[in-house]
Amino acid sequence: MKKSAWLPALIAPVVVAGAVAAPVIAQAASTPIAGDDPTAAAVIASIAKSSDAQYSGKLAQTSDLGLPELPAGAGGSSLEGDASDALSLLTASHTARVYVDGPSKQRVQVTEQLAEQDLIRNGSTVWTWDSKERAATKTTLPSRSAESPASGTATPTDVAEQAIDAITPTTTVSKPVVVSVAGHDAWLLTLTPKSADTLVGSVQLAVDQQTGLPLRAAVTATGADEPAFQVGFTSLEYGAPAARLFDFTPPTGADVDSKDFSDPRPGSGARHHGSDGADRPTVSGSGWDTVVALPAGSADQAGLGSDASGLLDQLTTAVAGGRAVQTSLVSVYLTDDGRVLAGAVPVTALVAAAK
Question: What is the phi/psi pair of residue 87, to 5°?
Fold first, then answer.
């Protein structure tokens, strides 16, 4: 996908930074959940033990970001269609089947309108498949990679990990309470930012009492009663999925592309940064007020087609020095000099950070 295609897709709700104080987590890191009254830190620390979990389940995602709901493939060309497809994942409700066998075998299936999109990882090999376009992409990951690629439909684990990545004393954490998710007993935590400047009002995480697997994650905007973004299991069964689910062969006649990131040497398929780091994002602020800026040239609006340009104009408004959009959870600012700034803060904070 070209840069112009993913510009609107930057408007994403998963800008959730900060969690609980580092000393509390450090103290609980080796403490298993025990008894009927665990600490919040022990519940969060238990998430780490779910990395080897084996399970199959169905996920439901809902989004209410204040953006217009756009049908997938609304653009007039494949490029604009890619942009509207990405936006549709953020503005509409979705369901997905998920199969996981430890940290290196995952499959996510999203089925809509008689079409199916799949992401299959088996070790260092990742396939994506779009049945509507009859297009497959094979990606070879570095052997050291232990991370799962993004599937478009986030899982509760994705949201939970982003909520606890930046562990700073910026968040009030509730005492765990008991809930049931997809028939499994879970501990529910509510993380509330102390900052008065973030758009995020709270993050709720439901963690399986037995396995530590995040079962549901919900992000609520400041001043709102209902989540702006929520993803959770509606059914879940533990146990190793069938091995065949992690094998994939493109159908005859499919359009197949390959990307090889296994060789880190210059000239291989991997992307390399210059020694000065000029093409890397920069970060300002901290915790829930963090602002991420992509360098000049990231937002090449001049290369947009008429349909994509109209889509961008529909989603953004003119502000000093560029165009911006503020959703219920996150803001994105596209500067006239080609930079992109994003954060869970008002647009005014992004404009100030760009100066």
Answer: -65, -35
